Amino acid sequence: MVVVFEFLSEEPIENLITCMNFKVDKLVLFGNYDRVASQKEKTECFLKRYCGVKDVLFRVLSEKDLQSVLSVMRQEIEAALKQNAELYFDITGGESLMLVAFGMLSKEYKTPIHLYDVSKCKLIELNEGADKNLSKDVEQQKIELNLEAVIEMHGGKINDSLHKETKTVANADAEKDILGIWEVMKRYSASWNLFSQFMRDHMQADENGEVIRKEATVLQALKASPSNFSSVSLLNQILDALGEAGVLLDVVHAAGMYRFSFKNRAIKSYLWDGGSVLELYTYLRERKSATECQVGVYLDWDGVLHGTGGGDVFNEIDVLALHGYIPTFISCKSGNMSPQQILHSFYELDTVANRFGGKYAKRLLVLTMELTKVYQDRAKEMRIELRFEK
């Protein structure tokens, strides 16, 4: 029987990574009272559901009394040895007092110690004087993470029922269309959101997906627009560019009329929702290298879906990618932003990444307009990577 003793870390992956890579029969986790109370249920559930650990035991330890810590740990060691168990100590994410205790007991019982570099999924063994070796004496396994498991690990849940149809790339043809719209959006990035709003407000299609408007009606709408989108020339340029991209068909703005058709319903939704194009482009880019990638992801805060009756607290993340064990939370912002909007986007991204990804999570903010140095510096302080798409 393989038994692993380890610290109960605040970081879920540190509690699980050994059992995701080796077949462990029993895991004994030591921690203070508050941590055991907050982590016990979700940690035990994950270990049994995904890792195949049969027995999970939590022991509360003193945070100040080394002799008390040693006494509790010796009890568990002696109990395991009476069952002829093979013992291994995992010090990944360990704290000072428990590190001292594990070091003393490892020497006393000649038990191997190891830890993981989580970001690299690298096992580091400290086996001086030990009789056994984890990597040689324990059967290996490879439990691959997916995004659902990562969010579950942190006590949340992906709510697929809230996923919007507009945040879907159905096939290769849809991918080509998105990339075509993206090339147009890049050229007119400063005006794209205003154009999108104008399309939504004034370019409604009929049941056949065709838009027909009198030129006078369009000009009046531009003139009355409360935004800065009031240029006939700019409107015509963007419509023509979308026609050349093949997503608007039979574009005409002459002889007193505006007329065109959306290639399909998806195109209409992309153009009406100004930010979706950047999100979908980012998704297409990220999924090339990610283990898994999703766009338009709704994350339920407490991991319990209450259905249509309400009660759910959730956050939407534009793009969520996974590379090995490390999730990347990606927010996409198109067009110009006010100072308040910039800071809000920073704090929102940081909050979601901390809640559902922990300390190893990466944060990426994708923008179409550059930020001034003061905001670039603030993003760096918050460990947020900025990517400016041009």
TrEMBL record:
A GO molecular function held by the record: nucleic acid binding
Lineage: superkingdom: Bacteria
InterPro entries: Restrct_endonuc-II-like, tRNA_endonuc-like_dom_sf
Name assigned to this protein: DUF1887 family protein
